[in-house]
Please model this.
Amino acid sequence: MATLPNVFTPNNDGINDFFNVKVNLPVTYDLVILNRWGNVAFDWKGKLEKGQNNLWNGESKNGDKVSDGVYFYRIEFSQMEWVEKESFWVCTCDWEIITN
Model:
């Protein structure tokens, strides 16, 4: 099971500054975040530990802040090899970056 965000505000106020994903067991993931025109704003693959994981701070890979607006993401999870495989699922949602 995973908890996924629907809004985050990377404005350095200490509240919702990261795109956080919380998982109840270690998993691997593949994350792609698209802007409203379908261009990739951010993508990353890796491993998540049990608990909360900060995946994105609202910057592109070259360190530039992305513009405010509506973004879409696709994240795929799979259990790591050393954990008994039980499920594989995909969640597609939309969210908006809100800054002050």
